[in-house]
Amino acid sequence: MSEAKWYVVHTYSGYENKVKADIEKTIENRHLEDQILEVRVPMQDVVEMKNGISKQTQKKLFPGYVLLNMIMNDDTWYVVRNSRGVTGFVGPGSKPVPLTEEEMMPLGIQTENVLIDYEVGDAVVVLAGAWKDTTGIIQHINEQKQVVTINVELFGRETPVEIGFAEIKKM
Question: Which tens digit of pLDDT belongs to each residue from 3-25?
Fold first, then answer.
């Protein structure tokens, strides 16, 4: 399996969040979670002055663009390219060009991987978040997304939950 890389998609101006939501819904419907890992609209904190009052807001870092962390293949290219509001990938012709590590650094997107010693079937306890102090058995490990799927008991039923590597420890 090839490695996921960051790609840039051009959208209609003002449609960035709609494109993000549309792509995420398509990922869920077509079960492409292991191929399109993340959809991001880069934002920056800006202090605005209105009527003499300073107010901190978030503005789009690149209006008209959405970043995708994905494994490029015919399926993922088709899904993204044919999403409503997308005008195309950034790159010559119809060939998308992934961002380099140097281009990713100023965006503050970390690509470092956490090495884990967990295996499917290990019992773990959740250290933080909504599932804090919950125990579960690892059902699936996704190293690219840096998450494990564990089954937790919710209303008397086993329910799969994704938890980040940093939020669990072995029992």
Answer: 888 999 999 989 999 999 999 99
Please name the residues in contact with 133: beta carbons below 8 A apart, sequence gap of 6 or more: 125, 126
DSSP 100: P
CA dihedral 166, 167, 169, 171 (to 10 degrees): -170
Distances (CA, A) of 27 to 24, 34, 45, 49, 153: 5, 9, 28, 39, 26
Look at residues 20, 159, 153 and name the one whose alpha carbon lies nearest to residue 86.
Answer: 20
Q: N- to C-terminal Cα distance for the chain? A: 32
Domains and CATH numbers, the chain: 5-107 (3.30.70.940), 123-170 (2.30.30.30)
